[in-house]
């Protein structure tokens, strides 16, 4: 039994010996990195096509017009909300304030439609490798206007409750 206990580990160690003929796992010459590093020229996107530039101008004007309409209606909505302060749902003043806020939301939706179209122009230009600076500028301006409108509406809704 003792001899068997000594022979089993020796047999197991012999089984772990790799027979000759298997390839080495060392890096072969073909796997070595060779060559020279060539700097890549930076990509210069093509200019914005005239049709896109015209559409960009039109959409920017639509968003600006909607924002001006929003700003023109905002004081009346603030007055209606101030008059409804303290009244609950169902009161005449509360209903008037809700209608005024809905008018603001309508003006905001017109700006958001223009923003959605600007987003589409931006995505199209980005996926086609086009120039993004002008589109991004108009889009960021529209986002700022819509964010301002959202803040105004949220403030009015909070004051109404």
Tell me the span between the first and last alpha carbons. 91 Å
Q: Tell me which CATH architecture of one domain applies here.
A: Up-down Bundle
Helix content: over 70%
Strand content: under 5%
CATH fold-type name of one domain: Methane Monooxygenase Hydroxylase, Chain G, domain 1
Number of strands: 0
Shape: elongated
- Can you summarize the main beta sheet? none
Which class do the helix and strand fractions yield? mainly alpha
Question: What order do the helices and strands come in, and which of them pair?
Answer:
Blueprint lengths: L1 H15 L33 H35 L7 H36 L5 H28 L1
Helix pairs in contact: 2-3, 2-4, 3-4
What does this 3D model show about the protein?
The N and C termini lie far apart (91 Å). Helix 2 packs antiparallel against helix 3, helix 2 runs parallel beside helix 4 and helix 3 (92-127) runs antiparallel to helix 4 (133-160). The protein has a domain at 53-160: Methane Monooxygenase Hydroxylase, Chain G, domain 1. The longest helix has 36 residues, at 92-127. 20% of the residues are buried. The protein is elongated and about 105 Å long. It is mostly helical and 161 residues long. The chain has helices at residues 2-16, 50-84, 92-127, 133-160.
Short key terms for the protein model shown above:
4 helices, mainly alpha, 161 residues
Concise overview:
The chain is built from four helices and no strands. With 161 residues, the protein is mainly alpha-helical. The protein has a domain at 53-160: Methane Monooxygenase Hydroxylase, Chain G, domain 1 (Up-down Bundle), CATH 1.20.58.
